[in-house]
Design goal:
The structure is a homotrimer. The first copy, chain A, is of the alpha/beta class and about 350 residues long. Chains in contact: A-B, A-C, B-C.
Chain lengths: ~350, ~350, ~350
Amino acid sequence: MKTFLIHLSLQQITSKIQGKLHLKNDTILTNVAELKEANENSVCFFENYKFLDDLKSSKAGLIFIPQDFDINLKPDTNLLLLEKPYISFVILIKYWLELCSSKKKREISNTAKISNSAQIDKNVAIGNNVVIEDFVKIGMNSIIEANSVIQKNVQIGSNCHIYPNVTIYEDCIIKDKVILHAGCIIGADGFGYIFYEGKHNKIPQVGNVIIEDEVEIGANSAIDRATIGSTIIGKGTKIDNLVQVGHNCNIGENSILCAQVGLAGSTEIGNVVYLAGQVGVAGHLKIDDEAMVGAQSGVAKDVPKKAKYFGTPALDAIQQKRMFISLKKLPEIIKKMKRDNRNSRNGK
Amino acid sequence: MKTFLIHLSLQQITSKIQGKLHLKNDTILTNVAELKEANENSVCFFENYKFLDDLKSSKAGLIFIPQDFDINLKPDTNLLLLEKPYISFVILIKYWLELCSSKKKREISNTAKISNSAQIDKNVAIGNNVVIEDFVKIGMNSIIEANSVIQKNVQIGSNCHIYPNVTIYEDCIIKDKVILHAGCIIGADGFGYIFYEGKHNKIPQVGNVIIEDEVEIGANSAIDRATIGSTIIGKGTKIDNLVQVGHNCNIGENSILCAQVGLAGSTEIGNVVYLAGQVGVAGHLKIDDEAMVGAQSGVAKDVPKKAKYFGTPALDAIQQKRMFISLKKLPEIIKKMKRDNRNSRNGK
Amino acid sequence: MKTFLIHLSLQQITSKIQGKLHLKNDTILTNVAELKEANENSVCFFENYKFLDDLKSSKAGLIFIPQDFDINLKPDTNLLLLEKPYISFVILIKYWLELCSSKKKREISNTAKISNSAQIDKNVAIGNNVVIEDFVKIGMNSIIEANSVIQKNVQIGSNCHIYPNVTIYEDCIIKDKVILHAGCIIGADGFGYIFYEGKHNKIPQVGNVIIEDEVEIGANSAIDRATIGSTIIGKGTKIDNLVQVGHNCNIGENSILCAQVGLAGSTEIGNVVYLAGQVGVAGHLKIDDEAMVGAQSGVAKDVPKKAKYFGTPALDAIQQKRMFISLKKLPEIIKKMKRDNRNSRNGK
């Protein structure tokens, strides 16, 4: 249950979210909740009939519900009949959050340590113990939360949200409307050595990371800086928690990298690519636009456009599925072959 | 070797840990150690005869040893004969650590930044540069270590230990005797988007995380907040390092998630479930009570109670083992089939 | 593109990096870059003819190029002909970085919180909000960056570089020339419990971690402390991001652990071992010297010296490859067997 500081009337909600209201009692709405935890001041949604029992017993004050819903199944509650209840619910939450956040004033903490050479635009919030080094630029309306460290020459655009305990190494560029969750490390050294004289000699990593507009990166993910040049995360791409992106990778626009994905160095990911959880991709490969790779797959060669791949090493998902079905039958087949062999040896 | 500030006599130890003492020389014990690194002030244990050579050469001052041990094999050392030497050794260490910790006084650092609206119970320790935001509550005897960030409305129970550089997002609830290791992120946004108008639109994540009593979570693990409702970690469950728990997961009591496990969203894990290292679990599944899933498995459908599963996609471990043994034989079988075919074509 | 504060003339570079200079115009060099992003002040290298088009269109001021290169392919640019252009390029970057860094003066921030009992050697840099607890020792020329936490009794050698937001738990030992990237956690508790009385009882983890000379550890990796004794990372070993090393592991010298590798407890890794990305290794195993394990492999038994292993469970890579090739053929084989069976039943 999320309770908001600002309360809304039924009328305020229905003027924002337009649908057919089945009105039972006027009420004040203070929170959004799941059906089963709701109270009389909760707004909820219902879409999946799997949760019909939760709906029937729910104490919610207002429920967003499909247009074709039989209101006799929930007669005593305010219902708002909508074409897409869940999307409308999401729109309401966004509206409500914005209402509340516009009440907050943006402050720069006096415990933040900000270099004199840093350029901080207007309406920026900087939390406690944040460190902003020389020549950093931060665009307007951005928020840098407590205990994050922004190293020298970093550029952060406008309307970004950097959560606590983030580290951005020097020279990296974060464009507009980027969200970096807590513990993200942007721009640590790529993993590059040359083996000579009996040991691994570090190759200096003097490139950077460029994160385009509207990218979101999850908690404790790591995006390595390029050896030279840039590691690039394209516009609108979303990256989940604990993901590793190696040096000099180039990820396109609107792609999805689920949790614990790992990309080795110099790999290219196209636009609208989907990598499910724990996928690993070897270095210097290309995964083309709109390809999808199933969870835990290990990609060892290029993946063509719109392909669906799966497995380690990753192959076309249909082929992989056939192989797996065959493998399940294999123990019985081998048993039968032995029996047949024995029989034929015995002259049967 | 762990050296304690408080030293113990042989007598103090044998009054705490009762067994049959084979006494050689009275001594003062100052540390616990492995057999091979021990000195004359060390307490050690011996249980596994694989390490008999280490035992024989050990310089330990006191060794916890099985009741049926032949003391002629280690004649010149103080030996304490016990039914369960290792468990007794663990009990001694816990006792010794408590003796030392009760000497420490709990302090709130003057560099911590604590909101006036926060409620801090008695005997709480708060480290340097810790940030405690508005309306946070912290129960008695809890420890929050340096540079951690506790966001607004978070509740932390009593006797918790939050290590350095932890981030807890707003509204999360941590109950009693919870241990969060360094770098943990509790309550970052779940990974949820709706694709429309050619891009991924963020679904606001307005739920929270609830961590029940006696949970321990390892370094750099991430537990995402629910979209609405709560992501729940049940009482006594232990989670290792670098684990990902997606939004709206519900984990039962006394389960074990080993390092680098990843759970997608809305998955339900029962009680006393064991997930070995690097296991991945798809979303909206149920792994029932007392099930065990082998390392690196990819769980793609429900796992029944007490089942042992393995592989990607995960199947019953015995079936999976049979499949693997068959697969090992397959290259030879195919070679033989080719030979037989050739022979039959040749009329042999 | 990496721009240096100190600029170099062609002559300064050619006196440091000796080769045959194909001189076109004297110029000042200010940065290193990739061929395609270079400007007239850039130094670049060329080695791989895959990038010949990038070379031809490059605006670089100086290019390191193979001795046998046909200079008519790039006639209007300063070229330095070298036996090993890339290695020479790396040497130049290292030299240039050192030139610049020796201009920086080392400071201890007045916002760092340093215990009076800590011993800090000369020429150490300590960043903002760093916490240094009791009895810590830091050797000369080491750098501890902002918001890191060094707990009591930790020893850090000379010429180390600890990036921001690192946590080192008490009693750990970091030797000389060690690099720890941002978010690393060194010495969190090993994952050890004894199940009795219906729950998991924590085994106190009172050992430590020892990190030998010239080790580098990537962003957000976690190296757990030993239960008793030490978890050891041997000299010159390089560990990438998001790697998990369990308690009491012992890793040899000059080994490589790629990103997201996970080692369970008490595993022994030899010298010059290579573990590719996302490899998992079960507990109490030994991977012997110079062994290589392919990406995503799950190691479930010992790996012999110089072996190449792959797969889950990991086997000799050649055997594994044969099995995989056979498996790809299996669906067709089963189809054929069915056809043959039908035919023979039909008396054909």
